[in-house]
Amino acid sequence: MNAASRTYLDHNATSALRPDARDAMLAALEHAGNASSVHAEGRAARALIERAREEVAALVGGQARNVVFTSGGTEANVLALTPGLEACGDKRPLDRLLTSAVEHPSVLDGARFPADRVERLPVDGDGVLDLDALSARLAVLAKAGERALVSVQAANNETGVLQPIAAIAGLVHDHGGLLHCDAVQAAGRTDFAMASGADLVTLSAHKIGGPQGVGALVLSPAVTIADRVLRGGGQERGARAGTENVAGIAGFGAAASCAREGRAEEAARLAALRDVFEAGLRAVAPDIDVFGARVGRLPNTTLFAMPEGTAETALIAFDLAGVAVSSGAACSSGKVRASHVLLAMGVPRERAAAAIRVSLGWTTTRNHIENCLEVFEKTVGALRNRRGRAA
Ligand SMILES: Cc1ncc(COP(=O)(O)O)c(C=O)c1O
């Protein structure tokens, strides 16, 4: 089966490369220059990077001069999560890192904070951060004279559930803290912007149709990072050493522009397809669990529990039938295990182990949705028959 005949519904793991991003990358690869060189070739490479910086900043309403390009969302998270952030010239190290229990592993690990200074806050049954728990913890820390960096994602990669970032930012700032927001899944898919109050925002090119291996940390004007991850040259205004990946950055910029330009129409198109898909699931299995369905979600994501069998058997059936979906986070695919996100939401381990994620993107058509539903119906039917025969 060739790639064209496959149904790719795993855009939260990685989205297909947009033609504009590919064109920008191919054009950039023709340039010989190092962006740090002062000659014409170097200046041409620099111009490509600076154009992309404008495009990426525009995606989240940030300022181009506050965009730091990285090797991806993971590196941007690790760069952001350090006690060595300075806000408004305050050089005192931050004392604690508070995260939600449903963050990406690169945040949950605490990055550059000592392990005993990292705390995880609970989410409710829908996967939304418990704001009372956050507020109470911030108040206790503030009373003890401690300042916190809080890291909460804008949208979850598995469920698509959105967090109330503006409300969280208000609480964090009221208590003298800083807010980092991992917007890898939300940027370009929702109207998420720096105006929500986040002080640092993580982005990744490959979730919006750019290349893998490129990302960015966008800072608010008041914030600087005192301790770098990569030390050496003075690239990225001293925030991240190393010769820039010019082609990757150019592809990121082009993808950011495409995602921003058609965002509202594309979100509506995908939400409509997602609704058709979920109605189709319910037609086969009326009691199906769609996780996070009661709260605001990304328009492109459905995480559901297979009504029969495990995620592992379902994944194989989908793949053999030409449909690429995922079981929870891609990072843990290949070895299917219950997702920490669903466990944090209080989903029983057995249900969590049956979770399948379908995530749509710019290449998704109605035909893809129908293919996926057809395989779902056949797979559930076969598993029901097998169970019936075994009984
Ligand atoms: C929410 C979230 N944060 C961070 C990352 C890491 O981004 P990257 O793959 O660019 O390192 C991912 C990727 O799956 C993600 O979904």
UniProtKB/TrEMBL annotation:
Residues spanning the signal sequence: none
Pfam families in UniProt: Aminotran_5 (PF00266)
Keyword vocabulary terms for this entry: Iron, Iron-sulfur, Metal-binding, Pyridoxal phosphate, Transferase
InterPro entries to which the protein is assigned, alphabetical: Aminotrans_V_dom, Cysteine_dSase, PyrdxlP-dep_Trfase, PyrdxlP-dep_Trfase_major, PyrdxlP-dep_Trfase_small
Species: Alsobacter ponti
Record has Metal-binding as a keyword: yes
Protein's job: Catalyzes the removal of elemental sulfur atoms from cysteine to produce alanine. Seems to participate in the biosynthesis of the nitrogenase metalloclusters by providing the inorganic sulfur required for the Fe-S core formation.
Keyword Repressor: no
Identification of the protein by name: Cysteine desulfurase
Similarity comment: Belongs to the class-V pyridoxal-phosphate-dependent aminotransferase family. NifS/IscS subfamily.
Cofactor annotation: pyridoxal 5'-phosphate
Family matches, as Gene3D superfamilies: 1.10.260.50, Aspartate Aminotransferase, domain 1, Type I PLP-dependent aspartate aminotransferase-like (Major domain)
Residue span(s) of domain Aminotransferase class V: 7-371
Catalytic reaction equation(s): (sulfur carrier)-H + L-cysteine = (sulfur carrier)-SH + L-alanine
